[in-house]
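Bug: token stream looks shifted between consecutive jobs. Job 1:
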Amino acid sequence: MNEHRADSWLELQELLFADTWNDRLGLFRSSFAYRGCSDAASDLRSGIVRQGGDTSLERQLMRAFRKYAAADSVPHDTAWDWLALGQHHGLPTRLLDWTYSPYVALHFATENLDRYDRDGTVWCIDYARTHALLPARLRQALDAEGADVFTTELLAGAAPALADLERCEEGEPFALFVEPPSFDARIVNQYALFSVVSRAGIGLDTWVAEHPRLVRRVVIPAELKWEVRDKLDQANVTERVLFPGLDGMSRWLGRYYRPRSRVSG
């Protein structure tokens, strides 16, 4: 895996937008998914892996979630729609949050003022090259749709049950990216997508270790975080925008007006 440490705001831009030129389109169109973490020591384990990776626990969680959620909570009654909805609302699942936007990732790398005493990071994974490694059945589903990333509906067509994903393997685990439905303005404004590994009990770290050339990590030094945060605020990349509503506005105001003397680092 390539790891780069940004020593300035300008270098950070160069690192995050590197390799985004698309020759076929003649445009800058990134094929990277980005994930920002406030602590560079953070790993890529999903919520269900953090709870032991037990698929029976996942089934219990999903059964209870579907029982208590409103019947019309998802646009399509598929296992992947329900899983995406659960992930979106904090349920431990096999999914992991990503975004198409490097600036949204930077927001999540700098939103926690209590972690300004440590480096942050932005993970970057090339989803187009990741999907080139998919089993034939799943590659064909993407190709037939002319898509680069799965939707929950498209994924459900190829693997209706969660366990079907592992059955698609051709000898080794694989990873893919799926766009959730537009459940609300939050998921739209965050330009969100999720990663999933074919086996629920395996963290994305394991897959990354086997495919380091498809991944890079940009480290944001602790001493650079304030400049990044101030410039994101100026660019209107804030909780008020990414979490529309009074809760997001309150989070933004509480952070924005917090005295710097009370911030770690």
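Job 2, same session, no restart:
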Amino acid sequence: MDDKKPIAIIAIAIVVFLSGGAWWMSRRKPAPQNATPAVVTGTEAPIDKSDGAVNLPPLDQMDGFLRPLLSALSSRPELAQWLATDDLVGQLAAAIDLAAAGASPARDFKVIAPASRFVAAGRGSRRTIDAASYRRYDGLVETVTSIDAASVGRIYKTIRPRLNEAYQRSGNPTGNVDNALLKALDILLDTPVVKDPIPIVEDGKAGWVYADDELEELLPTQKQLLRMGSANVEKLLAWLRALRTALQS
């Protein structure tokens, strides 16, 4: 299984568990065809932008501006490794774009790989996600939930003009990154909390799928969140709600 470790950054709700750890069920089916495109305009509840009035460098010079800003959020090595890459704002914009459609941006974040792989428990037809697979995300969840959501919201508002510029350049010329981000958060917050252990079955393509058809029909980002285990899901959903409030307050 080719599992990508999540990254704790400003679009933590988006890039962290959406971009990271994406395919424990490798060789997955494409995203459901009913996933709504991310091109959205100004119809959703707005994100307050009052904290973002600063002079920003041009988009192609944002890496030097963004690295110290984000590095102050966490000393985790995953964040440092990602910050060493280029076009950070462009990466975030692309991740938000995909996540707003319920799709996974994981394949665009290959710089970090986890030390362990997905583990199934049980035998024969009675297979479940092993608790060890959940524990791989304990450190990530602790990192994300220890970061003040209001601080993340302030950084978002600070870089928002350039993030919106990158978002529009990524195929959404009339789109609004605020609405896309809120849409992605809403998708995550609509994820059900499922009691462990979760039954799974082999899909015949060197991967696994949820045995429950309703769970398997969830959007890719929701299924990724579920596989962190119910305890971690509950913590992350609480943090996501705080982040959404911070973005809109």
